[in-house]
Design brief:
There is one protein chain. The chain is built from 2 helices and 24 strands. By secondary structure, it is mainly beta. The strands form 6 sheets. The chain has a 4-stranded antiparallel β-sheet, with no helix packed on it. The radius of gyration is 19 Å and the shape is globular.
């Protein structure tokens, strides 16, 4: 093989995604957020919030809450996590570890902090719950539609996904309370790709939908059971497949699947 070709293979090996660390966070890890100098992971089974030092890839603290933790985010100087078993939203001080909770009910699904409020989707109640972050007072319960799921903040509004048979997403204007709905043409448009420019939504079991200006412009079908993805440092979208224990890479500029690589679960068989 020519030297230039060998060099190309070596560079590809160095730059291709690969697992560099495997971190035991707790039983049944769910949502994660990066804030306050650490990575925080909510663990459903153990009911803990794990703090990971990104420099050492070690868990430096585990805050004990209650089993049922699902989504987690940050904002207003705190961590926010929802518990679908207790029907609560918890405010966690990242320094002291102090926890304060408020009951939001309706089987909370996702949480976002924006526009001076904390927002929670209540799956069973079909509501978007608005909470004042200091007092933890529930300000509004907005009827948003059946089975609301993922939340995404973009373009001056809050975007809401939906599960089951829904084929629309919704946008809430937080100031006026006006709700606009966008048809995506695929059932269960549930999770928005975190950090992505524009709206990329995981729908059905194996569809990724791209929406711009209220219209579906791209629809990619791949994998088997896709979960919430995120924008990677290289500008691609990384979409995990829970069933196959793979992570797919999608180029948002060309709307093409570039390939996939094994998740840590594929090698350990210890993901729940």
């Amino acid at each position: 093989m020519p030297k230039l070709a060998l060099l190309g293979v070596a560079l590809a090996a160095l730059t291709s995604p690969h697992v560099v660390a495997r971190i035991e966070t707790g039983s049944s890890p769910g949502g994660a957020t990066v804030a306050y100098g650490a990575v925080w992971v909510a663990n459903d089974g153990s009911g803990t919030l794990a703090r990971i030092d990104p420099k050492t890839n070690r868990v430096t603290r585990r805050l004990q809450l209650k089993p049922g933790l699902f989504s987690v985010t940050h904002g207003f100087g705190a961590l926010w996590t929802v518990n679908y078993k207790t029907g609560t939203l918890a405010r966690v001080d990242p320094r002291s570890g102090r926890v304060r909770s408020v009951r939001v009910g309706g089987v909370p699904f996702d949480v976002a902090a924006a526009f001076g409020r904390v927002w929670v989707t209540a799956w069973e109640a079909g509501k978007l719950v608005e909470v004042e972050p200091r007092s933890l007072r529930v300000v509004r319960r907005i009827a948003i539609g059946a089975r609301p799921t993922g939340l995404h903040v973009a373009g001056g509004g809050i975007w809401i996904g939906f599960g089951r048979s829904a084929t629309e997403i919704a946008r809430l204007n937080p100031a006026s309370g006006k709700i606009e709905r966008v048809e995506v043409g695929v059932r269960a448009p549930s999770w928005f790709v975190s950090g992505a420019s524009g709206l990329w939504i995981q729908a059905a079991d194996n569809v990724l939908v791209h929406v711009e200006n209220g219209k579906t412009v791209d629809r990619l079908t791949f994998g088997r059971t896709l979960a919430q993805g995120a924008l990677a440092p290289d500008g691609t979208l990384w979409i995990p497949d829970k069933e196959q224990s793979l992570v797919y890479r999608v180029d948002p500029k060309t709307a093409r699947v570039l390939g996939s690589f094994p998740s840590p679960c594929a090698r350990t068989a210890r993901c729940g």
